[in-house]
Structures are given as C-alpha cells and as structure tokens.
Design a protein that fits this description.
The structure is a homodimer of 414-residue chains. Chain A is α/β, with parallel strands linked by helices and 414 residues long. The first copy, chain A, is built from 14 helices and 18 strands. Chain A has two domains: 2-173, Carbamate kinase (3-Layer(aba) Sandwich), CATH 3.40.1160; 245-414, VC0802-like (2-Layer Sandwich), CATH 3.30.2130.10.
C-alpha cells in the first residue's frame, strides 16, 4: 500500500513527539508500505516567526513573510528525517520546491496548481520514507509560497492525490470527527465513516478537525482521508465518497459557530439592485457575508438581514454608512445589529431522501423555547441563527433529538 | 558601482540591528549603487538549531542537518528584505537554490562550484536590492548544503566575483584588520591595505576577521574586499592584490595561536619512509599536522617534532600507539608532548625583498629571554613555537620591534 501520513504541529511539538512520529513511520514502512509523511511546524513556531516579522511590518500577505514562516516546516522535516534514520529507517526530506508543489503567487494563502510526484517515487524506489514539508509551495517564478493556516492538511491530501495513494491519514490530537463537540455534549459519538460533502459542511460550520480545502481536494481526486489520533492506535473517522448506507443516517453531525454577528437594514426600497448594492459594498471591503434573508415586501419597502464574521461586524457597519448612505441612512439609522447570536447547524446526506428533517429540528428547538431568528438550508444541511446563550442547549437538544448518541444502526428513521 | 555587502550574525542579531543594516543598504542604493547584501543567521540561531538536531543525533555532517541549519539565514534574508521595504527601498530575498549557488555535496562544509548571477542582475534591473542568504547552497541533486562556519564571508566574496562587483564589503563587529590583537597590544594599528597573501597567512595564523576560503576566492577572482564595522562609518581594511608600496612594509602583522600542542617522537630509525608512516597514521585519523621538524640524524636514529590542534593531541598520541607501535614503542614510551605552547608568527610581503627579518625576529625574542622551540618559514611569514606563558610578551615585543605601532611611512627599513 501507498500511504500518506500527515502530522500537525502538536504531534511534532517536541523532540520526543517527533521521535514518536518517527516510530509510527518506521512501523508502517516495516509492514511493506510506501510511506510519505507530511509535517507541520513544531507547535508555536509559526506564531514565533510571525511575531518576528510583525516587529518590522504588519502585513502578512508578503513574499518575504512566506520565506520566513516556511522555515518552521523546514526544521520539522529535517528533524523527522533524522529521527527516522536514528531508528534504523531510511528517510529523505523534501521542501515545497523540491517536491515540487507548484502554487499560484497569492502569498500567505496560495493554492496548489500541480505536484511533481517523481522525486517522491524515486525516494520510494530507494526504499526511503519521503518526509515532506507541509504548508509550503513554490510559484512559477521560484518564490516560496505558503497555503494558509491548516495548509498542511491540504498538502497531505494533494500529495496523496498526486501519488494515487491508498489513503491519506491525518493525525491530530483528537481521535476522529464527532457527531458534535464532545466538550459540550459528553455522549457525542465518533463518526466511523462520513462523506466528503458532509465533512465539507461540518468544516464550514465550525468543526475544526480538517481544513476545508483538503476535503475539497480529497473529494475531487477521490482520496480516502482517515482522521485519527497520533497518540493512540484506535481507528478514527474515514472521509470517503458517499455510500448507500450513509443515506440511512438522517443527520450525521450537529455544529455551532459562535463567531457570527447579525446585521439588519430596515426600510429598504423594494426595487431591483438594492441587495446587490448593499452586498457589493461589503464584498469590496473583503467582508464575507454568510446567511442572507430578505423579508417579504411591505408597503413598497423591505428589510434585509445577514450574518458576517463577528470580528468584521463593526467595519461592516462603517462601510455601509460610508458607501451606501442612501440605503442605510446618513448616520446609519436604519441599521441594527446583534453580536450575541450563534449559528447552529445539522448536517447529513440523508436529508436528501428524508422529508421532515427541518420540521423535527424546529420542533426540538421549540420544545426548549429557543427562538429561531434566521434559517438557511442547503441540500444536506440546515442552519439556524439563535441567541448565543442557547448555543450549548441547542447542541444538546438536537444531538439527543436526532438520536446521535446511539450507534447509526439504532437511530431508526424519522 | 556594484557593491556586495556582507553582514555577520552580530550585525543582524536583533530586529533593531536588522533595521540598522536595512538603513545602510538603502543609503548605499540611494547613492545610485547596485547593492547585493549577504547575511548570516541572527546570532545564536545556528547554535539553537544545532542543539535541536543534537537531541536526535550527534553527527553534523548530514544532509538533513543542513536542511535544518540553513533556516537561520532564510529567516534573516526575509526580515532584512521586509525592513528595507519598510524604509521605502525595494528588495527581494534569494536563498541558495534561488541564486543559484551550486556546491558539491559535502554537507556541513560544501564548496562552491558556480553561481548563477542572472537572478541578481534581474533584481538590479528591477531597481531592487538583492538580499542573499549566506552560508548555504544547493548541490546537483537539489539538496540544500551549507558552507561551514564563517561560510557567509565566502558567499559574499563568491557573489561579488560572479557579479564582477567593484567591492565586497565585509561588515563585522571590529573596524578592520589590525597589526595584532588590540586586546593584547593596545597600540596595535588598523591596517589600511593588505595583500590577499598576507591576509591568508594572518587568517591561517589566528586572526579571525575573515574566513580563509573567502580570501582565497577574493585572490582568485581579484575581488577587492573591504573589512569594516557595521556600527560606524570609518573606512576599514582593504584586502587587495599586492601593490608596490606594500613591499616597503617589511612586516604587516603579528599573530599568536594558542590552540596548538607539540608532540615529539624520539629514537626513530633514520631510514626512508618513517616520516610518511607516522604522518599517514595521523592523516587517516583526520588529524591536521601543522609544523613539522626532523632533527639531524645522530647515531642512525633521529627525532621528529610536530604540532597538532590542542584538542586533537590526546587522540593523536593514542593513534600513534595503536597504529605504529614499532616506531613509538608499545606503550608509546618514545612519545613526549607539550600542551603549553603557542605559535607566534610575523607576516609581510616585504619579507620577499628584505633580508634579515628572521634575524630581527629572533633577536627581539632573545632580548626578552623567550626560548624558541620550533621554527617554520614561508615566503611571507615566519612562525615560531614558544612556551604559552610568553604569548602576550612575544606579541608585544615583536609588535614594537618591527615598529608596527607607527604609521607604515615612519617605520623605516631594517
């Protein structure tokens, strides 16, 4: 088998842990597998380097910042290769430009264009474990680029795709993907298998186990992703193409995102182009608008409500006042906002074939007296905005209401 | 003008100092010069990285150790490029593989084979200051290599040679090359101009201002090297091809090296091949023998004395006992040694045309009652081994004896 293993910063945070990772690699290779390992920087290292650069300038989207920050992974691959050899294994490190992981030139959040798998295959042919720096690439001009926070997940899956690997194992400090946050709901269950689509929704909606782009890549190239713990040997969660059995499970997971804020603009003229004007002003300010709701027209005017990242709420209001005073009022008197909201979502491919999921969700929330402020649906998820104080209560109620504490086979249908 | 500036670890040891270096670069560029800057790792960084690797394994001559250690310079070039831009200058960083500095594959002490000056010229054409990582290169296979301690000097001079630069300025924490160690002889004078040959001898004999290989490269390609302080603007020492006026100066500098030990083997059979046998055994053990003296034969036997680095003395004796017991006696009873010696040398191209330099040297030492144990001469230097306790006394006496406290024009001849 050809297996790509990816280890995050916590898993290589000390020399002892690097030696532990080396042992896992050597053990896997001893079973006759070809192993490529992708590693992040030692935990804390990327922040240390960013702090150094911040003493000179603040903008992280800079060619030179990527030159500096990419050294974190460079040190990790060198140390891991040494540790593997110390255990009697054969290993060779590869940096982004050596693999080579070609990206666009968007420094600090570049996207992978292609990977040259030949150097890694040559390492396999020489009996070596290929130790590959995560998070970094190289652009057409030969400049070092980085892929953004969590980019090592993406490197891992991209390498697996380029090699046609049998699996990409993502090692982390939890032992898989859970039906919801176990810190909030103690009887949350580890999910054994989940589809790419569901994982994408979960990742977008607040579950932080996998970087979204890595899941997109896995889906695009059909790479089976195995999320598991680097501190134990128990199987984790497989992220795979959708399977027949998955549809039997109506809801796979429940998430909550607390870093949202709600903005409402009242008394908007109900004529074409108003929504576009409002949202263009925000888009020009690089503010990402998530849920959007426009009420039924009333007396020729309408209201619009939308959510933005909590940290951008203040700036969003300023932008609206400055850019479209004709819509929001000179002093923004038609704008109101609420920072004390959260977005609770349920995700499941089973929704496609099961009616009544939304009804059950709203019933469960109503039975706890939780008022729903906004609703947004997609093919495989339903999100609602509720007051932030209900976040944990809503999670627990929905988790129980959809029977997620039970094994999938015992959950029954709606 | 096209100027290469090289800054050592102390000169870029803090963010503030990096900003200071950036100002120097921007000022030089503002005068209309094309500037390439070569920088070392921030002081302490290389040792920190070596300590990390030492927690896994001890051998520094390893491909992966170079991968790790080279990150020190990578961080420096990124930070300096940022600092230059913050001051309004234009800058771009280059790593060893981007320049590209092609070396052999002797990890941890690779030698430069060639440099591709085109990327740097392209940066100049774009009005940019080229910020180049010292100490590192890349081998034929694309692996990162490093050039050994002080390797950034070599990078600087090699870049200057490849670019056909008008000068290579080596910035350091002293303001030039002195006639001797100013800590020992307070009236030591800064040397204004010195020949490559003399600088090579001084560097070999204990003056630590420049890495020897950088001087060799400067001599080979005729690069004028300007050794000066990064903390002031006073002119330093120019290392240049030999000039007519230099010959007027009989002695340019006096040095002492204290890390030497003397080994003597007595009662050696006076037949061909004995010296070769002794020295081969040591060479096989990678012990560098410096001065070698064989006495006149006496009764068919002879004595041989030589010096080795102090740290290798013990191992040298063990090797001789183990490898050539027929020459040194089973228990090494014919070997004696002295760790309390030092090597005092005078250097000057003027020796070529002036007789009597040795006589003056021995007279000066005799007048201080300093006994000479070994003598070794080359075309432009004379070295003597004396008891270590006389090191400072010998330096001061020779410095005064050859009038080195006076300006060159007032020293007179012998």
């Amino acid at each position: 088998m050809l297996i790509v293993q990816k280890y995050g910063g916590t898993s290589v945070g000390t020399i002892e842990r690097i030696q532990n990772v080396a042992k896992r690699c050597v053990d896997a290779a001893a079973k006759g597998h070809n192993i490529a390992v992708v590693v992040s920087a030692m935990s804390g290292e990327t922040n240390r380097l960013l702090k150094l650069t911040a003493q000179i300038q603040d903008d992280p989207n800079d060619r030179e910042v990527d030159v500096i920050v990419s050294t974190g992974e460079q040190v990790s691959v060198g140390l891991l290769a040494l540790a593997i050899r110390k255990l009697g294994g054969k290993a060779r490190s590869f940096l982004g430009h050596q693999v080579k992981i070609l990206t666009d030139s968007t420094f600090s959040r570049a996207r992978i264009v292609s990977i040259d798998a030949e150097p890694v295959k040559a390492a396999f042919a020489a009996g070596e474990i290929a130790v590959i720096a995560g998070f970094q690439g190289v652009d057409e001009g030969g400049s070092i680029t980085t892929l953004g926070r969590g980019g090592s997940d993406t490197t891992g899956v991209a390498i697996a795709a380029a090699l046609g690997a049998d699996a990409c194992e993502i090692y982390t400090d939890v032992d898989g993907v859970y039906t919801t946050d176990p810190n909030v709901v103690p009887d949350a269950r580890k999910i054994d298998r989940i589809s790419y689509e569901e994982m994408l929704e979960l990742a977008s909606l607040g579950a932080k186990v996998l970087q979204i782009r890595s899941v997109e890549l896995g889906m695009k190239y059909g790479v089976p992703i195995h999320v598991r713990s680097s501190f134990s040997d128990v199987p984790g969660t497989w992220v795979v193409p959708e399977e027949k059995e998955m549809e039997q499970v109506v809801v796979s997971g429940v998430t909550v995102a607390k870093d949202e804020a709600k903005i409402t603009v009242e008394d908007l003229p109900d004529v074409p182009g108003v929504a576009a004007k409002l949202l263009s002003a925000l888009a020009d300010g690089a503010i990402v608008v998530d849920m959007i709701l426009q009420n039924q027209s009333w007396d020729g005017t309408t209201d619009m409500t939308f959510t933005v990242p909590l940290g951008d709420r203040k700036r969003a209001v300023e932008i609206l006042k400055g850019q479209v005073p004709e819509l929001v009022g000179k002093d923004g008197e038609r704008i109101s906002w609420d920072d004390d909201v959260c977005k609770v979502s349920i995700v499941g491919v089973g929704m496609r074939s099961h009616a009544g999921v939304a009804k059950r969700m709203f019933t469960v929330l109503a039975s706890e007296n939780i008022n729903i402020q906004l609703i947004s649906t997609s093919e495989i998820k339903i999100s609602v905005v509720v007051a932030k104080k209900y976040a944990e209560l809503a999670l627990r109620a929905l988790h129980a209401g959809f029977g997620l504490h039970l094994p999938p086979s015992e959950r029954g249908t709606l």
